[in-house]
Amino acid sequence: MKAGDRAAFTRLARRHQASLFRYAVSLARSKADAEDALQKTLIAIWKSAATFGGRASVKAWMLTITRNSVFRAGRVREAPTDDEPLAALGQQAGWGNENPEELLQRLQRIESLERALNELPPTDREALVLRDLEGLSGEETAEVLGLSLAATKSRLHRARLRLMARLTEESADGS
Amino acid sequence: MAHERNVGGLTCSEVLSHLSDYLDGEVEPATRLNIENHLRGCDVCERFGGHFSAAVATLRRNLGPAEELESEADARLWQSVNAALDE
Predict the structure, then answer these.
(1) Rounded distance, CA A26 to CA A66, Å?
(2) Could you report the per-residue pLDDT of A6-64, keeping only the tens digit for each?
(3) A53: which DSSP letter?
(4) Which residue of B has its CA nearest to A89?
(5) Which residues in chain A are closer than 8 Å to B84, comparing Cβ atoms?
(6) Helix, strand or coil for residue A147?
(7) Contact yes or no for A38/A21 (Cβ under 8 A)
């Protein structure tokens, strides 16, 4: 997309706006804040089209701008620090315990997964949205998050374990 | 620790730490082999690995496509964006 090409910008923005909005929602305090961030994101994409420079992933570039828009507005939900030992997270997720078949069924139920995903802290949710829902590579995810690849992988793994922990908890509650 | 064995050259804790990289195809061949040997010999890790894989696969497959904005939100968005671009 060349700078100033309005039709191309509109096509590009419409193609990706659902993904950008979902990512903004994963970070922001409210849908209204996410909508506001999306508007700022699209305007920023228009203004900075000339600086894209043919990087590997247009989507990663746009998601990075989205992240910046949410953070600049100061509308990010607070996230707890992540210093829980991996073994403890694993046990909460059901590792090392007997897991009834019911858990496996729950893991594959879309509404359970959606609910569990929405209950996660924003740092977990954004890692899962970028890597598993948007399908970015590890390197692209690291670029959007502004982290090293190793830190990104660690965050993603913890997020996946916490997702499973939520589902395991639901299964134990019988809800 | 609820469960910890050393099977196939790896402990259960080590397999747990590698599980996401293994699922994403991002482990070295030698480590991949050790993980697979461990999973073959440890039913607890094999079961957890299966559940972990199922959860991630369902997430990717069924929640992957993002929902389009509601028509009113879309109209609001593009009214604002177009106004900004026309300035």
Answers:
(1) 11
(2) 999 999 999 999 999 999 999 988 889 999 999 999 999 999 877 777 666 899 999 99
(3) T
(4) B16
(5) 39, 43
(6) coil
(7) yes
* pLDDT value at residue B59: 87
Task: Name the residue with tokens 């009113």.
Answer: B72
Q: Is B28 on the interface with A (CB under 8 A)?
A: no
pLDDT grade, residue A125 (50/70/90)?
very high
Summarised one tens digit per residue, pLDDT across range A65-105 is 999 999 988 767 666 657 789 999 998 888 877 666 666 77
User: Could you tell me if B26 lies within 8 Å of chain A, comparing CB atoms?
Assistant: yes
A104 vs B2: CB contact, 8 Å cut-off?
Answer: no
Q: Concatenated DSSP letters for A2-40?
A: -TT-HHHHHHHHHHHHHHHHHHHHHHBSSHHHHHHHHHH
Residue A20 CA to residue B2 CA, distance in Å, equals: 41
| Closest to A6 in 3D by CA, of A46, A59, A48 | A46
**Segment holding A150, helix H or strand E:** helix A149-173
User: What is the three-class DSSP state of A95?
Assistant: coil
